[in-house]
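hey m, so remember when u said the tokens were messed up on ur end? i reran from scratch. heres the input so u can diff it against urs
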Amino acid sequence: MINQKIADLRLDYKLATLNEEEMAAGPVQQFDRWWVEVIQSELDEPNAMTLATSTPDGKPSARIVLLKSFDEDGFLFFTNYESRKGHELAANPQVTLLFFWKELQRQVRIEGTVSKAAAAISDEYFSSRPVGSQMGAIASPQSEVIPGRSFLEEKVKALEGKTLERPEHWGGYLVKPLQMEFWQGRSSRLHDRLLYTLGEDGNWKISRLAP
């Protein structure tokens, strides 16, 4: 049965267009162009992105993580290596990232492969985090069942006043893109979708997808 109150929720997108002749030669360059506009728009947590992973037999899962850097080498985020996503990334390095910037009526979808960031990069970022965040990374056995919140609070309290170093179970991942789709909302659901695909020759091809 259709809930008509939900089904009737819709917005006609009319803010912008996306044309092939306007696109950068490579997807990271194009992402950087959009990123500048995102920052200028002062959106809340524009670096929030959905990370989709799956088990080797295809069981998917998704969650929000935060982008911390990007360049031609890939898109960088940090997490617990022993979490559910950490185990899935170790078993199946194929991932998807999804950004949705509602206020700009834009999405970016990134498909690629993931690998652990260099230890020096993880050390550098960990040392830059607020002390509370450092404690949380050390104390939390992410994704494991725990008896209650007091379990975490006691572990954090035990760390107070101590010198904190990055734990081996926590660090960065780098997603190297193989495909990147840029989506611009358009009126009547005739959205613009332009897809970059990495060829065997190392060059990027741009294709338009039907909405």
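this time it looks ok to me. Helices lie at 4-7, 27-40, 84-91, 119-128, 131-139, 149-157. if urs says something different then somethings off w ur setup not the seq
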